Amino acid sequence: MKKFQSRSFMRSALYALNGLRLAFKSERNFRKHIIIAFITLAIAVFLRVNVIEFCLILFANAQVLVCELFNSVFEYIVDAYYKGRWAKLAKLAKDIAAGAVLFSATVSVLISSLIFAQRFYQIYCKNFAF
Hints:
CATH class: Mainly Alpha
Distance between the termini: 70 Å
Number of helices: 4
Largest sheet: none
Number of domains: 1
Order of helices and strands: HHHH
CATH architecture: Orthogonal Bundle
Number of strands: 0
Shape: extended
């Protein structure tokens, strides 16, 4: 396996950064998820969530992005294997991979919503107590 091993950590990191760049340039949904992640993190900073809550939101957003990356890789592999031909198994595999992204995005929204709702409630009760 020496043939495909990278010679240095720096070179491996450059390959990984190139992969992220390619995903950003070629995958529309990856770009959307990054924008949503930055908006969510900006709201978290604005609401001054605590460190644990911020880490939960960050982890949930990262999970969505990682799932999207794996989904893209999986779709490229399936497309390369089937060479553009339609196949029921390929469709099922790609649908399941897309379902994983949807599931992780739904969990991420739920986590962020619960944390933000709690902060909004705390702010509202603090400023408008009867």
